[in-house]
Write a structure and sequence with these properties.
about 210 residues, about 75% helix, disordered N terminus, mainly alpha
Length: about 210
């Protein structure tokens, strides 16, 4: 990400913005999901809607913000650069995995955050950890080996890197990274669904 020259400065800026868009999606869920049942307690008490729907509203709000920012990134890149390549289409499976991860976190954190009410106080710390542990401001190649030992397990890092590679740098997808992202994301989705459904009766009583 060389910042010399007007084109390079633009590319650097849009690269950072794309990374921050993904991070904001995750941190928005981290910040709101643990308190989402308390924020919608009236729906639990006065209506018969399925409890599982409530964390989905938090997730969909984050999705709207993500898609708005991502659209601006794509439009800006098309207008100011030379266009996009066929590798752009890899954005869709990557976003699908990101959405699966986000929805799983919404269910999981809504459940745990209702049982352990102080969890929400820790989310800003987790958010900062995600930000600086996802290679938003620096290339993955510059991560020291000692730190990479831990960061290599962060699926958000791979999502950010692969979105940049396919959308902005016209590179093919790293299939090993995509496989890892898909496994972790859909495991998180399943785990969140199982945990929320196994605790939903207790959650209604706590709220």
């Amino acid at each position: 990400m060389n910042s010399s020259g007007n084109e390079s400065r633009f590319e650097y800026g849009i690269t950072i913005f794309l990374g921050l868009t993904v991070i904001h999606f995750i941190t928005e869920i981290l910040a709101t999901a643990p308190r989402t049942l308390f924020a919608h307690a009236n729906y639990l008490q006065r209506t018969t809607i399925p409890t599982q729907i409530i964390p989905v509203s938090t997730f969909l709000t984050a999705v709207f913000h993500l898609l708005t920012s991502a659209t601006l990134v794509v439009i800006g890149f098309i207008l100011l650069q030379k266009g996009i390549s066929i590798h752009f289409l890899w954005m869709f499976p990557l976003l699908l995995c990101l959405f699966a991860l986000g929805l799983g976190l919404s269910w999981l954190l809504a459940s745990i955050g209702t049982i352990f009410k102080d969890l929400g106080e820790l989310m800003p710390v987790f958010g900062m950890t995600v930000l600086f542990g996802s290679a938003v401001f620096y290339p993955v190649e510059q991560v020291p080996e000692s730190i990479w030992t831990y960061l290599r397990y962060n699926p958000v890092l791979y999502i950010v890197n692969e979105l940049r590679s396919t959308i902005l740098w016209n590179q093919n997808i790293n299939f090993n990274a995509l496989t890892y992202i898909a496994i972790v994301s859909f495991c998180c989705l399943i785990l969140g669904w199982i945990v929320f459904n196994s605790t939903k009766q207790k959650l209604a009583e706590l709220v």
